Amino acid sequence: MFSRLKEDISYVFERDPAARSTVEVLTAYPGLHAVLAHRFNHWLWNKKWHWLARFLAHISRWLTGIEIHPGARIGHRFFVDHGMGVVIGETASIGDDCTLYQGVTLGGTTWEKVKRHPTLGRNVVVGAGAKVLGPIEIGDDARIGSNSVVVKDVPAGATVVGIPGHVVRPSTDQDQVQRIQMARRIGFDAYGQTRNMSDPVAHAVDCILDHLHTIDERTNRIINKLVDTGIDVGELEIPAIKVEHLGESEELTPDKVEEGAVSDRGKS
Questions:
Q1: DSSP characters over 150-186
Q2: Which long-range contacts (CB under 8 A, 24 or more apart) does 104-108 make?
Q3: d(C-alpha 149, C-alpha 133), whole Å
């Protein structure tokens, strides 16, 4: 039990750069509280203590703003960020390493007592306000854009946006696969970024990731040539980008900008 809790806390730190301490995560993260409560409620549900499980789930909803039916199946390292207004239905199934943001609904489309809620694969991210409805399957590594309405299956590695949701990044796009891999190496989740979206910031991020991939590939070729000649270059990992590191940079003021410009002119 404690190892599972430790795993949950570490995943919060991985997914939320605002998390500063274990005490903060344990006491001030309703998403974690809702998941912990659901595990107990799900155990009660499986033991046929249905009323008690539903009642405790109702209390958890009142305390956290997150409604998870005790019958829902949830994997390891599930993270609900912010969480207010999240609804997860009875027959929903969520794989490992998934992330949901506020206002997400994993809902049903029928009143019949059948499988009527979505199944999410591994490492799926569902953006704020998105609605994923019906007994559909969302493939591994898929991304659901904010406020999208998804009623059809989503292939692995795809990004879906819009109403109704449509795929804007097919899983066969090798460039996007490379971007995902590079983004993970530097500690950045390229959520919802694709050239097919009319977003100049997203396009700029894609260009940076492509540039990093090219540099990485050239560096590997140079290292391989050095190794072939008997030179040991050792191992060097790319450090992950941390938001708190960015905050440590010196604040730029108009005076400092002008001083930097003067300094640059002096060097020239």
A1: E-S-B-TT-EEETTTTEEEE-TT-HHHHHHHHHHHHT
A2: 104/128, 104/129, 104/130, 104/131, 104/132, 105/130, 105/131, 105/132, 105/133, 106/72, 106/132, 107/131, 107/132, 107/133, 107/134, 108/133, 108/134, 108/135
A3: 8
Cα angle at 163 between 94 and 115, to 5 degrees?
35
Q: If DSSP codes are grouped into helix, strand and coil, which group holds residue 6?
A: helix
d(CA 64, CA 146): 21
CA–CA distance, 150 with 161 (Å, rounded to integer): 8
Domain spanning 1-171: which CATH class is it, in words?
Answer: mainly beta
Bridge partners of 181? none
**pLDDT classification of 158: cutoffs 50, 70, 90:** confident
Assess contact for 135 and 91: CB atoms under 8 A.
Answer: yes
Q: By the 8 A CB rule, do 195 and 203 touch?
A: yes
Predicted confidence (pLDDT) per residue in 167-207, tens digit: 885 545 566 666 666 666 655 554 444 444 545 555 566 66
Domain boundaries, the chain: 1-171, 173-268
- H or E stretch at 103: none
CB neighbourhood size of 25 (10 A) = 19
Torsions phi, psi for 220 (to 5 deg): -60, -40
CA atoms within 13 A on the CB side of 128: 5
40-77 pLDDT, tens digit per residue, is 999 999 999 999 999 999 999 999 999 999 999 999 88
As a whole number of angstroms, the distance between CA 154 and CA 13 comes to 28
